Amino acid sequence: MKIKIGLCGLPNSGKSTFLKLVSQAEVLIAPYLFSTLKPQEVVAPIITSEIKNLHLFTKTEKLVPPYLIFIDIPGLIRGAHRGEGLGNEFLSYLRGCDVILEIVRNFLREDVPHPEGNIDPERDVLIIEEEIIEAEKAILKKAVKRVEKSKDEKVIFLKEIFHNLKPFARFPQFSEKLKEFNLLLTKDWFLLINGREFTFKNSAFKNIYNLDVEWELEILKNQEAQKELAIKVYEFLNQLRQDLNLIQFFTFTEKITQGWLIQKGSKMIDAAAMIHTDFALKFKKAETISLENFVKIKDWNKARSEGLLKIKGREAEVEEGEIIFVKI
Ligand SMILES: Nc1nc2c(ncn2[C@@H]2O[C@H](COP(=O)(O)OP(=O)(O)OP(=O)(O)O)[C@@H](O)[C@H]2O)c(=O)[nH]1
Ligand SMILES: [Mg+2]
Q1: I need a surface site. Which of 12, 22, 105, 270 has the fewest CB within 10 A?
Q2: Which CATH number covers residue 122?
């Protein structure tokens, strides 16, 4: 399941720095506006204590943690929907993502200009909302014209949405019907406050998180503090994946210990297909055990003889934290 999380926010809100933190990759970070000009995909591993515990036991050469994919998108500014600062192009990158993580700046730094001149997270979130709404209006207008011609009944709810568009309004009741229009409003929105904590009065976010990304990145350079920091970042990523309705499961072979993310409610056959195409084609059954139980018993055969393994068929649901062995 490759969910793409698009980053969105004003220039210099810390999007690229955030990506550097979660991936520790080299994304261009610069204290001038529009340092990011093209969207860049970044893989952020989620190394939790669970997978580390499993790896301590399997001691395989390779550890492949579960991961999320973020897309670094250049900063949006006022007027983005009219194309200011390449806004239209940037908005179209966002449409290509499955969910959106907005980053809002709440850190002070004289040498890093703010496009609005001062720090005000509430205003910044509103600017993005207004840009999104204007962009959606343009799409809805075209859609209404199109369906009006064909006398399609869709025109009723499209008009209703158009007239009720305002900051933080979302239309979950229409989310299924609206899918074909690929609106930004029908995606799930999350907010990351970069810097000091801040309480938002009004919002349409599914969850709001807080990290001080630059500071965390600094700490990362200090070996002593690294461990603790990593825990904080991985905790954030782990929370985000749960908020995205993803569960994690594990596999291991002689060479690789691996963590995977799959949509909650998925079946064993879906997990098998994710691990290996062949596993899905030749699936007979799966043996599974919770990581917690396995770490206690430490031996697959012993777990089997003591009746601790679950035998699951193709339609059985994948559970959070289970280790899966597919039998073909
Ligand atoms: N003090 C502090 N500085 C930060 C923080 N986050 C980012 N910065 C600095 O702010 C500047 C801009 O950060 P970027 O991550 O490049 O910002 P961006 O949102 O990617 O900007 P665009 O790509 O232009 O949209 C860099 O000099 C960062 O070092 C933070 O949490 N605290
Ligand atoms: Mg950037």
Answers
A1: 270
A2: 3.40.50
Total number of domains in the chain: 2
CA distance 149 to 223: 64
Residue closest by Cα to atom 32 of ligand 1: 214
Residues 187, 193, 194: CA angle, nearest 5 degrees: 125
* Tokens 């209006």 belong to residue: 137
Q: Hey, is 249 helix, strand or coil?
A: strand
Ligand 1: lining residues by beta carbon, under 6 Å? 9, 11-17, 29-31, 33-36, 74-75, 107, 109, 112, 194-195, 212-215
Distance CA 120, CA 196 (A): 12
Indicate whether 155 belongs to any domain.
yes
Summarised one tens digit per residue, pLDDT across range 181-210 is 888 999 999 999 999 999 988 788 999 999
CA distance linking residue 251 with residue 54, whole number of Å: 10
**pTM score of the predicted model:** 0.90
**CATH code of 301's domain:** 3.10.20.30
pLDDT in tens, 82-135: 766 666 777 888 998 999 999 999 999 989 999 999 999 999 999 999 989 988
List the domain range (segments joined by +) for residue 307.
265-327
Rounded Cα distance between 238 and 46, Å, is 6
**249 in a structural domain:** no
Cβ atoms of 209 and 240 closer than 8 Å = yes
